From TrEMBL:
Pfam families: Phage_tail_S (PF05069). It comes from the Bacteria. This is Phage virion morphogenesis protein.
Length: 161
């Protein structure tokens, strides 16, 4: 007669895998924090998540910021865009958002992608200063992508212990 031992452990691990989607909230939160940290690092380091330095401020912008007692840092006026990222999660998704606007103008998009025809006279060009860890084609920045993959694999391995 053949006796198989340890099936109980295998059954528990398989049950854990089966119930994975109901237990992903901690993982999803961690992945969302990874994205949020990448965005915040971009503001802090004044470069895109892809490593490209943000274009310097124009002399007129710098002069105006100094005159009004604002920060000399790139992408910082009052800190609203840099400091107000919100993470929302469910068991299946994470979203990192920022609804900051100035006089009704959602300036995050203008800074991420650049804009022509800005300002009161509609003659100002704002250079792109990307801060989101996604390129124009929707590709996630490689370090962020690797971190997300590693965190996901670790989560599943821990679940199977």
């Amino acid at each position: 007669m053949i006796e198989i031992k340890g099936l109980e452990k295998l059954q528990v691990k398989l049950k854990n895998l089966q119930n994975l989607q109901n237990r992903t909230a901690p993982l999803i939160t961690q992945l969302g924090e990874t994205l949020k940290n990448s965005i915040e690092d971009s503001f802090e380091n004044e470069k895109s998540p892809f490593g490209e330095r943000h274009k310097p401020l124009s002399q007129s912008t710098l002069k105006n910021k100094l005159k009004n007692g604002k920060s000399e840092r790139i992408l910082r006026r009052d800190g609203n865009l840099a400091d107000n990222w919100v993470l929302n999660t469910t068991n299946t998704k994470a979203s990192v958002s920022n609804n900051t606007n100035f006089k009704g103008f959602a300036y995050g998009l203008a800074h991420q992608f650049g804009a022509n025809g800005a300002g009161r006279g509609k003659n100002i060009k704002i250079p792109a200063r990307p801060f989101l860890p996604v390129d124009k084609n929707g590709k996630l920045e490689s370090r962020t992508e690797n971190t997300i993959k590693n965190e996901t694999v670790k989560f599943i391995k821990d679940l199977l212990k």
